[in-house]
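At this stage, I needed to go through a protein sequence along with its fold in token form, as given directly below:
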Amino acid sequence: MLQRIELSEAVEIIVENVTQIKEKETVGILDSLFRVSAQDVFAPIDNPPFDRSPLDGYALIAEDTKGASRENPVELRVVGKLYAGDASLFELKANQTVRIMTGAMIPKGANCVIRQEATNYGSETVEIYEPLKAYQNYCYAGEDFKKGVKLISAGEKLNFIHLGLLASMGFPTIEVYRQTKVAVLATGDELMTLGTALEQGKIYDSNLFLLAARLKELSITPVYLQQTGDDVSTVAQKLKQALAASDIVITTGGVSVGEKDIFHEVLPNLGADQKFWRVNIKPGTPVMFSIYENKPILSLSGNPFAALVNFELLARPLLGKMSRDPAMLTKETIGVMAIDYSKKSKQKRFVRAIYEAGRVKFPEGGHASGMIASMKKCNCLVEIEAGNNGLKKGDSVKVVLL
């Protein structure tokens, strides 16, 4: 097992040891939101499938409007009316028009549409007050996209636009990769279940819900959520249950160097292949990564903010690889410090921060790894390189967006 490795090496080890989901399933398009497409989708028809009107008015022949004005209107005979959804059975001849509504099919023979405000709204005959050019106010069949064009590629994460495209082509279902199953196991004798009376020396278990909620924000619903104490046999039993129910197990607590940091015993007893322990970052140094029967086990620090840092930097690459979802990966940018930061750092450090209009500032309140209240307004982590002697207002910094 490797120890005290750099963050980049830890990410590389994780990605190398994760197998992508291969199983596929067909779901209704509404259920496919935020899922990853397992198929290429091609347009079976033009969109729109027919020439149509972009406005309410009259479909006519442009040549019939030559010289039209309010002082000298052109009068045309109205031979019918078309609403959106009507099949057009008309074929216009010279000096004829059809009353037409937005989205309706343009009849044969017509080559433009005049807006109703440029007419007298006639029903049997209509006065035209302005000349039109051929194909003015005219939406062509296939104007959005043509039959045969690729609308969705396998591997794309589906959003509301993708679903609209599928619906516009009449597809009720789509093939997607099955969802990644994630289990979360929080350990610690100090943890108490929500809704119970808090005992002396105990704390409520926030990590379980912090991580489960973060997973749901990333479109992953955890399949197993459990809290347990530090008893080795109980943790081993819960871990086996978590592995049986999931593709990935995320644990919190029990990975440092204390007497009750039980994963140093539980994982070897299980037969897990421990890939690394301790990454050269703060907070969250004692994070551990193991593989058991091709299933990743990512063991995070027990302190809430440290667990969050571990999750953002290590769990997201893991989840992104397994679920085939590049959107799962963290996004980075460069920000400019709006204030000074005097704390020196021997290790690479990640500090909670607020990124706004390219500028970075730190929230009021505590910044210790066990504190989460000041995270409420934060939307990023600022990466401070090892050996840094502090930051000055105006310095450029790397920002990991949350």
